[in-house]
Structure formats: C-alpha cells, structure tokens
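--- STAGE predict ---
source: upstream dedup step, 1 unique chain passed
mode: sequence only
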Amino acid sequence: LDLTGACKGQVFAVLGISLLSGAALMVTLVDVELVGQTLLGRSSGESALILARFLVALAVAAAGGGWIAHRFGDRWPLFTGMTVAAIGYYLISTWPLALADASYGPLARMDVDLVVTGLGLGLVIAPVSSAVLRLVPSGQHGVASSAVVVARMMGMLLGIAALSAYGFHRYVSLTSKLVPPFPPLADPAQQKAAVAAFKLGFQQALHTEYSEIFLITAVLCAVGAVLALTVRDETPAQEQIGFKGSIPDMTTRLSTTRPFGSGPEDPDTSQLKALSGRCLYCLALSGCATPHQQPRRTSSCTG
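--- STAGE serialize ---
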C-alpha cells in the first residue's frame, strides 16, 4: 500500500479499528456459543440461535452505518460504534451465573446485551471502508480496500489465538483446586452433594473466564473508540485544476481547435498536446484547462 500523499496516521488508525473490530467479532462468535453450551446447557443449534441476536443486529447496523457515514462523515459513526460495542461487551462481562433468569424488566438481559453489542460493532463496518478510501489517493483504492479486509482478518486470527491461549490458561488455573467426586463416596447423599459442588465450581470457573475475556474485549473496543477520534472527515489531499478565466463552451473549444494534419500547429496547441498527451478533440470534450494553467495542489492533511 503506497501511502504517498495520504495521511498515514489516520490510515493506520482506521486499519487499527478494523483489526480491533475483527478481534472483537471473533471473541463473540466463539464465546457466546460456549456460554450457551456450558452455562445455559443449550445444544449447539440453540446456542447458534442465541448468537443470531448479535448477528442480526450486526447486519442491520452495517447497512445503517453506511447511510450515517454518507450523511455525517466517518469519524462519529466510528467513534459511536466502538463506544457502543465497548459498553455492550462490558455489560456481557457482568452477566450473572444464572443468566437465564436475568432481565431488564420484560426483556431478557442476554438478548438486549447481544443486540447492543451487535449494533455497535456493525456500525463501524461501512465507515471503516469509506474512511480509508477517502484518505488514500484514488490509484490506491483497490489496495486500500484489501488492506481493510486483511486488517479485519488479522484481528480475527489474533483474536482467536489470544482467546485460546488466555482461555486455556485461565481454565487450568481456575479449575486446578477443584476436587473431582471420585472415587464415589459410600454415603449417596454426600456423593450427590460432592457432585453438585464440583459442577458449581466448574461453572463458576467458566463464568469467571468468560467474564474476563469479554471485559478485555470491551477495553479493545474502547481503544478503537479513541483511535476513531483521530480520523478527520476532510479529504486529506487532492489535485484540483484551477481556471484563471471563464471556461469556454464546447462550441468555442471545437471551433478553435486545429485538426491534425492541417498544417503547422501554433505554440499554444503544441504545448497543450505536450501537456496532456491526448488528442485535441478529447480535450475539447472534457473541458481541460488552457496550456498556461498549471495544476495546484491543496492539502489539509496534518497527520
């Protein structure tokens, strides 16, 4: 990715947001499924339906994020999305052990928190792409679009790697002191109590592990919100052609253009051809500048 003429700091900030959102997305895809199976006792299909709350909100917010970015710029949708996602992950990190009974009035807490998180994370998808396209020269748009996807995929890979390493470490450390109810005790009542205590300790260990992982994810989203504040909505650099006088209409341009092969060209026509490398007919149709007018470059990039 050639960043010549682009605001490198802002481009890296946008790519960082894409990377962090990818990591958060992978954590959600893995851990919400695990929460459903281990803490709620749901099947794999039922756990996928729980995850569907997040995915549907993600898709809806992704479509709305594009419209918001078009109307209000990229900076505030990026900041709002990462902030809402951070709040959502913090709420998920405080889920109680008896999650099935938790609610916000008539609404199930699990559903509300997953929808909030999906709305926040989905809101940044479109602004990330539009921001990086605005920040780089037009000749780098294809590479820049790929860089956004690569950053998100790298975030997902790093997220699943860190999730696996931290999750296994915490699982071992939290369950190391649990005593399995084997061999069975002679008293059936004591054996039943020992099995219940072991299951409760196992669930508490998993609950602590999931809470810590979601809390770390909330911190990552908060970092992404800070990065979003560094992104500006102005186009950083562009080339503009200025006209010192009025632009002649097409009829005037065509009537004053000498066809090729009609004789020696006047100096202005030769200079015009040398400047553009295009035929005079195309120049007349496209409304090019006169030969003595030079492009002037403006830039508002400060980072």
